[in-house]
Amino acid sequence: MDLMEKNLELVEIQKLEGHTDRVWSVAWNPVSSHADGVSPILASCSGDSTVRIWEQSSLSRSWTCKTVLDETHTRTVRSCAWSPSGQLLATASFDGTTGIWKNYGSEFDCISTLEVISSAILIHKFSPRITSLNLKGHENEVKSVSWNASGSHLATCSRDKSVWIWEVLEGNEYDCAAVLTGHTQDVKMVQWHPTMDVLFSCSYDNTIKVWWSEDDDGEYQCVQTLGESNNGHSSTVWSISFNAAGDKMVTCSDDLTLKIWGTDIARMQSGEDYAPCLGDGHSMQPTRFCYFSKKFSVQLVLMDDIIVSGAGDNAIRLFVESKHDSVDGPSYNLLLKKNKAHENDVNSVQWSPGEGNRLLASASDDGMVKIWQLATKQ
């Protein structure tokens, strides 16, 4: 049955309270789900300088705060991301540092911090399990962090207009593989392609940049810029998300639009025409629809290609691709809108991993994290 005919609603399962400032981002541990016999785990980060780890009970299905990570960052924690193994959590902070936390089951330890002050390399001592490390990084607020599909590289971006790529080495060490400086304003988000080592970044300069290295020497270069001149956004690009296959990308902007981009994965993998180039009239052609609310986040999930977005109007919206052909390409319909999902701006929305009846987590300026379920109206 068509999703538009199912009379669906978004049901609030639980409100997670504990943060004392706005919550910027949520991230599901990719290897935790009841189906695998592991309790689902969710991380949230906040303007209160902390990260909270939430766990769902396998018996009661209620959520509790498992631990609070509060001894590393001194300012807002803007972004958090789990490694593909689920063993490491990276956190990006306005204090100019990126923290790397290891999950030991009953506790989390910060095993390294990537930072620089006045170009001086700092040495940090952490858990007795870890030796001292020599690391450096961004000079300003770190806005976003993302792991590649294999967990071998980590990308960060900053108000200093740069994107850094870090190689994960043995012994919990991190080496700078590349510093990318193509953007002319704050870089808001970095996101690796889900199946290939291609990095995407979006910025206050209204563009999305695509970064790729032809070989293993780490010489990354910008192979495409998606901007207003080639059907891109006309204002700040806030967020980037892919479906699992990586053949669709969704972006959202301060120009009040979502854009859905498509690319030919086979052609990219073959190297015949790696960069999805609008100028040549193929791939990455965007589908555009208006949103009418500023500052929103977006995620595209492979299951039924549902797009979920949260915005500055306190609402959560779900969109699905129309089943009807259009001469202008694919079109998308509003599946449902959850008004007053939060009491303030919705900063982050994320579907839980796995298949079946997934959970949705949202984070807001109201200091709350909420867990939702998509269900048929009774």
TrEMBL record:
Stated name of the protein: Probable cytosolic iron-sulfur protein assembly protein CIAO1 homolog
Physiological role: Essential component of the cytosolic iron-sulfur (Fe/S) protein assembly machinery. Required for the maturation of extramitochondrial Fe/S proteins.
Record keyword Repeat present: yes
Entry keywords, A to Z: Repeat, WD repeat
WD repeat placement: 16-55, 70-102, 135-168, 180-211, 230-261, 339-378
Matching InterPro entries: CIAO1/Cia1, WD40/YVTN_repeat-like_dom_sf, WD40_PAC1, WD40_repeat_CS, WD40_repeat_dom_sf, WD40_rpt
GO cellular component: cytosolic [4Fe-4S] assembly targeting complex
Family, per entry: Belongs to the WD repeat CIA1 family.
One record GO biological process: iron-sulfur cluster assembly
PANTHER family the UniProt entry points to: CYTOSOLIC IRON-SULFUR PROTEIN ASSEMBLY PROTEIN CIAO1-RELATED, WD40 PROTEIN CIAO1
